[in-house]
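Format notes (please read before filing issues)

Several people have asked whether sequences and structure tokens are stored in separate files. They are not. Every record keeps both together, in the order shown below: the sequence lines, then the token lines. Line labels are part of the format and must not be stripped during preprocessing.
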Amino acid sequence: MENTKGKDSKALKIIAVLILAVIFTSSAASAANLNVDPEAEGGYTRIQAAVDAANAGDTIFVSPGTYVENLKIEKQVRIWSDSRNPKNTIVEPADPAESAVEITAERVTFSGFGVENSEKEGILLTGARNCYINNNRVQNSECGILLQNAENNNINGNTVTLNGVGIKFEGSNSNTIQDNLIAYNYGPGVSLKKSSRNIFFNNYFKNAENVEDNAENADNIWQSTLTVKSNLIKGPYIGGNFWADLEGTGYSETCIDENSNGICDASYNIAGGGSDNSPLFPKVPSAVKALESKLDAKAYKDGMAAIEEAENETAASVESGAEENETAVEGNKTNETEVPEEKGAPAPGIGFTVLLAGAAYFLTRRR
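Then the structure lines:
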């Protein structure tokens, strides 16, 4: 009797394994590869067309070129550039007033693209879950990457530069941000609003303001468990982040590493709250230079200089307008009726603010 039960149990296990094998094989067989290549016959010429035609689980390979379109990704697909090189596979929005890439689905992969020139977000994840945003160069947008009510996404190995804000979080929790270059953005490298339990580690920060000052920063994590593995700047441990600034006096650039383990001896306090308990030290200085070679410090300096010039010109224009108004008022005075004297300088109107915002955005688009 026991032998019969044993045989039945083994038979059931074998059947279960066979059923699972059939399910997995059917899933793999049903997933398709789609190719986007404007030069090839019979393929897709636009990325969005391939996304629309794809089924959940499909992979889309995109040939090098510049694709002028606003991508809306609403299904579980993997989108890869063929070259894996963000410099030769570019997405620019057809409508710059909208995000260049908008992802609203779960388990989307978007990898290997240059994303540029949006008046809003380069890459927007809204309501997205478990997505993988990897090896992209996101620049010249109001916000490089925005996570909006998005959770459990991995933002990995991207270069986020020359944007108004590098990466922004709005109501987004439990995301992982690792191995990124977040540098030379005109505003903060990272901004967190009503977002917690996000983990940042092994990133290279170099902005005038690396993390926007906000008490919610304390609700996020700024290092991983110390692990023996080569980090972003070729040190021996994965731990926290590299904290630089535009003057070469950032915490990682000036901290002490007495035991020569590539980790600063003291923690780094994050603006607004929280701390990086394992900030990276430049044990291999040439590795930092190699990272800097991937960035464009000159474009940032040129942009900032032009923004300052635009601000000065606008301020001069406002002052000139005020003087003209004052002269006109004086000319209209009569002996019988005196115009009351204005108290204080005129406040900048909305036009002034809009002009400054427009100038700042225009300059972030400079290449």
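For reference, the curators noted about this record: Helices lie at 2-30, 47-53, 251-254, 285-292, 297-331, 350-364. Residues 47 and 177 are 26 Å apart (CA to CA).
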